[in-house]
Design goal:
This protein is mainly alpha-helical. The protein is 70% helix and 0% strand. It has one domain.
């Protein structure tokens, strides 16, 4: 169990380093993006929406982090399906009426 966890952790760390290789902001962007989004939303909505909510900043920060997590995982999963498993999409047969123009 511990060996599996260590292997998973090392693979995730290597993937993270490879993904950020050659970028100027790199690792800091993963922290800056949610933080800047939180600050912007807090200043815009704190007077109107968050005025009556206790611990509004904490709720907003958790919401931004969770939203960014699901957004990123959905985007990456879609890209993996389109790039590596494109034959699955081509093999599905459906009526043309279901395509939205």
């Amino acid at each position: 169990m511990i060996k599996t966890f260590n292997l998973s952790f090392q693979l995730a760390k290597a993937n993270f380093k490879l993904r950020n290789e050659g970028s100027y902001l790199g690792v800091f962007w993963y922290l800056l993006n949610p933080l800047l989004t939180f600050i912007l939303l807090f200043f815009i909505f704190s007077n109107s929406t968050g005025a009556g909510i206790e611990n509004y900043a904490l709720y907003l920060l958790l919401g931004v982090i969770i939203f960014n997590f699901f957004q990123q995982t959905t985007t990456e999963a879609t890209q993996i399906i389109l790039k590596q498993y494109h034959y699955l999409i081509k093999s599905i047969i459906f009526d043309k009426e279901f395509i939205i123009y």
